[in-house]
Write a structure and sequence with these properties.
Layout (H helix, E strand, L loop, with lengths): L23 E4 L9 H10 L4 E4 L6 H17 L3 E5 L2 H4 L4 E4 L7 H8 L4 E6 L2 H10 L3 E4 L18 H7 L5 E4 L7 H6 L4 E4 L1 H5 L3 H14 L3
Parallel strand pairs: 1-2, 1-8, 2-3, 3-4, 4-5, 5-6, 6-7, 7-8
Length: about 220
C-alpha cells in the first residue's frame, strides 16, 4: 500500500484509518453481476481483493441492510473490509461509508457517527471536489471517470490521467475510477493514484477470482 502523501495541514481534521491492502475497491452492482453478490464477493476476495463497498442505491434501507448482513460474513472470512455507499445507518453495521460528492458529503458528521476507526470516503469528479474532501478529513476519494466506462454509458467526459496527478497532490489518497482495469493500473499508479476503484469488470466476469488476481498482480507490478 502506498503511504499517504505527507501529513495533513494543522487545520485539517485527522483521518480515521489507512486504506486496505491492496488499495483496490470493488463497488457492487447486482444489476451487472453474473453471480449473487455473496458468491461474487467470496470469489473476488479469494482472488486477492480485500475491500468492497455495497452500492445498491435502488434498494430500500431495510433490504440494503439485509444484503449487507449477508455480505459481512463473507468479508470477515477473508479478513476483508466492507463499506457501504451513502447509507449512514447501514455504515454503523460495517467498516465505513462512501459519500456522494457535493453538499451531502458531510465527512465530519459521518466521522462523528461512526467513530475514528471507520473508513470514510467521497466520490469526486474534479479537483475542487477532491480539495473539499481533503479539507474535511476524508480517508480517500474516488476520482472519475478516468476513462469511459461500460458500467455507466454516456457518463463522462473521461478525465484522463492528468487530473489524477493533480488530485494526488492535495494530500488525500485518490482512487482512480471509471473504465479502470488491469490494463491501465500502471498508468493510474504512475499518475499518483493511491489505488483503484472497479465495478463492471469483476461484476460481469465469468470468473471474478481470476479478474481479481489480474487486478492485484497489475497493481503490484506497477510499483516496480
Amino acid at each position: 500500500m502506498r503511504p499517504r502523501a505527507g501529513r495533513p495541514p494543522p487545520d485539517r481534521p485527522l483521518p480515521g484509518r489507512s486504506l486496505p491492502s491492496p488499495p483496490l475497491l470493488l463497488i457492487t452492482d447486482r444489476a451487472q453481476a453474473r453471480l449473487p453478490l455473496p458468491a461474487l464477493l467470496d470469489a473476488a476476495f479469494a482472488g486477492g481483493l480485500r475491500w468492497a463497498s455495497l452500492r445498491e442505491k435502488d434498494l430500500d434501507p431495510a433490504a440494503r441492510r439485509d444484503l449487507l448482513a449477508a455480505l459481512l460474513p463473507v468479508a470477515r472470512r477473508h479478513g476483508a473490509v466492507l463499506t457501504v455507499h451513502a447509507d449512514l445507518d447501514a455504515a454503523r453495521l460495517c467498516d465505513g461509508l462512501h459519500l456522494p460528492d457535493g453538499p451531502h458529503a458531510d465527512v465530519a458528521a459521518a466521522r462523528a457517527a461512526l467513530g475514528p476507526a471507520a473508513l470514510v470516503g467521497v466520490s469526486c469528479h474534479d479537483r475542487a471536489g477532491v480539495a473539499r474532501a481533503a479539507a474535511a478529513g476524508a480517508d480517500y476519494v474516488t476520482l472519475g471517470p478516468v476513462r469511459l466506462t461500460a458500467s455507466k454509458p454516456g457518463y463522462g467526459p473521461a478525465l484522463g490521467f492528468g487530473p489524477v496527478r493533480e488530485a494526488a497532490a492535495l494530500g488525500v489518497p485518490v482512487l482512480a475510477l471509471g473504465g479502470v482495469d488491469a490494463g491501465c493500473a500502471g498508468d493510474c499508479r504512475a499518475a499518483g493514484a493511491a489505488g483503484l476503484a472497479v465495478m463492471g469488470g469483476p461484476m460481469r466476469a465469468a470468473d471474478p477470482a481470476a479478474e481479481a488476481r489480474a487486478l492485484v498482480a497489475a497493481w503490484a507490478a506497477a510499483a516496480s
